[in-house]
Amino acid sequence: MKKLMTALLFALGLVSVSAMACPAGETLTGGTGAHHKGGTCVPKSGVAMPKATKAAKPAVNTSAPVATIGAAPASVDSAAAKKAAKEEQKAKKAADKAAKKAAKDAKKVAAATAPAAPAK
CB-side exposure of 56: number of CA atoms within 13 Å? Predict the structure, then answer.
């Protein structure tokens, strides 16, 4: 009986978890397949939401990069960001190393200045 009750509670838990795809007051819209994979939660209302339309494909190949005046290429920005992140990591490692060394030195000083234990 205990196993049956456990199985029943487990099944009800799964059903309630899967049914809560959107918060209260919202409904799932769009997406693909029976479970609306990739859909979005929208507020419930009596008004139907317009369907998203696909943008028309351009007749000309626009995959070539377009140069803009005064703008740096994306690769330069990402390289600068990578360099800044690397420098930040390096600085953090140095600070951690200095903190560990300071703690080690403080222990040495405390051990050297501590009174000796009385002899028995």
Answer: 3
DSSP letter (8 states) at residue 32: B
Q: Is 21 left (phi over 0), alpha (psi -120 to 50) or beta?
A: alpha
Q: pLDDT digits over 80-98, tens only?
A: 888 889 999 999 999 999 9
Nearest to 22 by CA among 37, 45, 43: 43
Q: Where are the beta strands (DSSP E) in the chain?
A: 26-29, 40-43
* Residue labelled with tokens 């990739």: 38
When mean pLDDT is compared over 27-31, 71-75, 102-106, the highest value belongs to 102-106
Enter the pTM of the model: 0.32
